[in-house]
């Protein structure tokens, strides 16, 4: 059986699997586990996830180093995930007791700090150049109409199309986002992130995620994208910006050109799954139902 943990960062949830375990088809397993209707649930109404984190702890470093591979619900991989990387750091701290963790992602190595209430992770430099996003043209996109949104394109390890709207809560994200997500100007697609100012100088956020193909309760790279674009457009001059996705509160701070994402994480439950012609699941030691695969 394959052992797993279930973590979330402000509602952005992931199955975490130690990469030392033999998984013959990571893509297929992720599709199976993450399905919101038929995936693994905790018996309390939470089924599926926003992805599977395959994590490998590497020895021989001053700080623990964990190699992170995120496979999304559609079977694709994402080079970076802010909340996923924060969950990876929390997982590594549980196993090592160390509070500083280096997380190796496909978009670079990120330093994370774990304390009792939150996990902070360095997110690198937000980039607006067409080569970085990338874009299918030679000029950046800054407040430009794409579909029904005026978007600014930024790379946070993954591409985001950010649009400021009057009120994110009243915007029909599920209908307005796909034309932008699949726009030809984004050759690799884009996450679509909406933001609106709150009453305290921060921003509310909603994100339609590439690879999930729907809205998630939180998106860490999206929160950094909101803060970076807000600064670029002169909507804020703050070095520390509160960003609130539906699943909880995040904080983005800037030190020089480095963006740092901070927020809580939680280990929800653990279990085991046997996976093949049929699937049997044990959650916290309790046998679950067997379902045809």
Radius of gyration: 19 Å
- What does the largest sheet look like? 20 strands, mixed
Shape, principal axes of CA atoms: globular
CATH architecture level-2 label of the largest domain = Roll
Summarize the structure.
Helix content is 15%, strand content 42%. It contains five helices and 20 strands.
How would you characterize the overall build of this protein?
With 293 residues, this protein is an alpha+beta fold. It has 2 domains: 150 residues, Roll (Diaminopimelate Epimerase, Chain A, domain 1); 130 residues, Diaminopimelate Epimerase, Chain A, domain 1. Helices cover 15% and strands 42% of the residues. It has a 20-stranded mixed beta sheet that branches. β15 and β16 form a beta hairpin. The chain is globular and about 50 Å long. The two termini are 15 Å apart. The C terminus is likely disordered.
Helix and strand layout, with pairings?
Layout: E1 2-9, E2 12-18, H1 26-34, E3 52-58, E4 65-71, E5 77-78, H2 82-96, E6 100-105, E7 108-114, E8 119-124, E9 144-146, E10 149-155, E11 159-164, H3 173-176, H4 178-181, E12 191-197, E13 203-209, E14 214-216, H5 220-232, E15 240-244, E16 250-255, E17 258-263, E18 266-275, E19 278-283, E20 286-292
Parallel strand pairs: 2-3, 4-6, 11-12, 13-15
Antiparallel strand pairs: 1-2, 1-18, 3-4, 4-5, 6-7, 7-8, 8-17, 9-10, 10-11, 12-13, 13-14, 15-16, 16-17, 18-19, 19-20
Q: What would the keywords be for this entry?
A:
single chain, 293 residues, alpha+beta, Diaminopimelate Epimerase, Chain A, domain 1, 20-stranded mixed beta sheet, 5 helices, 42% strand, globular
